[in-house]
Amino acid sequence: TLGGIVNYVLKQPRLGETSGYASASYGNYNDFQTEGAINVGLGDNAGLRVSGLYTRHDGYLSDGTQTDDSAGIRAQLKVELTPELTVRIEADYAQQRGLGGGSSYVGTYAFDPVAGQFAVTPSGLPIDEGLLTQRAQAYRTTNGNAGNLPGRRADPLATEPFQRNDVYGIAYHIDWETPIGTLSVIPAWRHARKDNLNIESGQMVGNTQDSNQYSIETRLVSKSGGPIDYIVGAYYFSEQIDDDIHNSAGALANFNTARFTTKSPSVYGRLTYHATDWLRFTGGARYTED
User: Fold this and answer.
1) CA distances from 265 to 81, 156, 192, 237 (A)
2) What are the pLDDT digits (tens) for 245-279?
């Protein structure tokens, strides 16, 4: 990339080895976090690694919002079919639950024609009050305006927020050592399902979304040690998102349903010439069409 790159590399299974670890912590707001992994050797040429994590905490605000309840698991199977051919299959699943985010009323503002600017009247509520307590609901119905309609006060927030988000996927990593370098083929699929209702803006905003992603990458990486190193490859990505957003402002409501599709093929290459032990020249190119 032009601006830099973040490279995220999974810890792979170790062939013929059995090992593992686990850790846990506990803090205020009943914050509990745990993670662990186990690696099982399946003979000298195969290994299975399963890792997972779980984290939760109570709400940071008085109305119980700003909670978290999340978990994830990943399994990887790595098999060395021949000294030159290795296949790794990985599958993962993650979920997010709890009430999600929250906010508090800071105050109201109105235009002061004498001063020629907006004036803020503090709410008098603690900053960690939240929006769903009795005091916050009373403040909302007394001071809130529904949909900017004159004389129309805001209704109380009638529904508690929630988040039910799930993401899972599977990918194959095929690596073949050839005389001219390592040929890698990586097909993958990922699905995301989002279903949540948030009130952080002082309105009830619901969102349901389904997303499917498909991708495949093929690349050839030369063996190191020679005067010239190279990388050449191609990548294809496609995605379809079905998105439904519904927003209730009391007197007004908005409903937006959309489908987004993306298709993105690309090719790339990079060449490095080692002129001396301390000097090298590198050039690269990439073409992407979205």
Assistant:
1) 30, 49, 22, 6
2) 998 877 788 899 999 999 999 999 999 999 998 99
